[in-house]
């Protein structure tokens, strides 16, 4: 998706919402297509614009890499008389893959998601609260317990 298409999607989103509302109110016939169903489902998500912006940021970051390396064409072609053979190309690709895997591993090591408290505070998400309040209560108890153990919270708390 080009930059223009991404910007255009955000620009026309309010019109798409009106269209879906028109179908729901039976002012417009339901097209009964997978595309319409996707847009109708997305309309129900209050964070859709933020999610789209996040997706666009990720795609802007990785598109150059994917365009260059995610292709059926060989990334390195040996020219007649050159010393680069297929084995060298495969070795290079394997080293690139190892490098990317090492980067992802480092990001995971540095990520705050490795800490249980960070994962447990997902209970503060309003969608989780409404979807599964018992799960949220359990997670909040775990957070409070951890804060008490680490002496970051004084006294007891009733949940």
Structural class label: mainly alpha
Our estimate of the beta-strand percent is under 5%
Helix percentage range: 55-70%
Q: Calculate the mean pLDDT score and round it.
A: 82
Tally of discrete structural domains: 3
> How many helices?
7
How is this structure best described in words?
With 159 residues, the chain is mostly helical. It has three domains: 1-70, no CATH class; 72-110; 112-159, no CATH class. Helices cover 67% and strands 0% of the residues. The protein has helices at 3-24, 34-43, 48-69, 86-110, 116-120, 126-131, 133-149. The longest helix has 25 residues, at 86-110. It starts with a helix and ends in a 10-residue tail after the last helix. The mean pLDDT is 82.
Features:
159 residues, mainly alpha, 3 domains, 67% helix
What is shown here, in short?
This protein is mainly α and 159 residues long. It has helices at residues 3-24, 34-43, 48-69, 86-110, 116-120, 126-131, 133-149.
List the helices and strands and how they pair.
Layout: H1 3-24, H2 34-43, H3 48-69, H4 86-110, H5 116-120, H6 126-131, H7 133-149
